[in-house]
Amino acid sequence: MSETPCLIALDTATEVVHLALCQGERTWVRALGGGAQASASLLPGVQALLDEAGVPRSALQAIAFGRGPGAFTGLRTACSVAQGLALGLGLPVLPLDTLALVAESARQRCTPLATQLSDHPATVVWVLQDARMSEVYAQPWGWRPAQGWCALAQPALWPAARLTDTALAHVTASPDATGLGRVWACGTALAAFPEQAQALGAAGVGCVPEAAPEGAALAVLARQAWAQGLACDAALALPLYVRDKVAQTTAERAADRVAAALAERA
């Protein structure tokens, strides 16, 4: 594989569309409105990024995309656009784990975390993304300087209340006698569920709530995937689903409202 690839990378798993263009050592990034706007804004955003950099589509060598987990519509949008671009240009795709992108964003944003990862290979970074419906996409990641992010378990879908106990279990299992500083948490669930985030912080877990699958993280992981020979056929541009149910039934929503009302009275 070329050491200085030309790649376009995109992620639409959250409420923001994140884009990155890599050409050699240079990187251009862009963030656009996501959600319902993603399908309309994604292709124009890709073209605008190419125009800004003065890079023709013919120069691209692969299309990288965040495969999830994340919002169902967003994942389908990312996969279909990545596949369409790749097929149209005769290029391979580079599937990227969206939760790894969030971990990389936390590493870039938080100097103490970056230092911890370099000095202590046993450091665990929990990526905790708001999955709506009072649930969280959760996955622990480790950092290896020679290869980058390594998944320590499969991504899971948890009730929000569970994330504190499970993440804290890694604190007590840390090689450090105190456990402090060896476990970190990042992602949108920290803002969505502040009580759990507060409990994590009180236990010594470092928190990076602003981490997101943003352009700078896309660029790093896309380059790494290219260098590791992970490019594959466009037909394999498939989403990573963790939740097999996208919405609650009317009865389930009614039950949740009753439970919430009872909790308020308690």
Automatic annotation (TrEMBL):
Keywords assigned:
Transferase
Q: Which organism is it from?
A: Aquabacterium lacunae
Q: What InterPro entries does the database record attribute to this sequence? A: ATPase_NBD, Gcp-like_dom, T6A_TsaB
Top-rank taxon, per record: Bacteria
Tell me, what is one Gene Ontology molecular-function annotation carried by this entry?
transferase activity
Gene3D superfamilies found in the cross-reference section? 3.30.420.40
Q: Where is the Gcp-like domain?
A: 39-139
Stated name of the protein:
tRNA (Adenosine(37)-N6)-threonylcarbamoyltransferase complex dimerization subunit type 1 TsaB
**Gene Ontology biological process terms in this record:** tRNA threonylcarbamoyladenosine modification
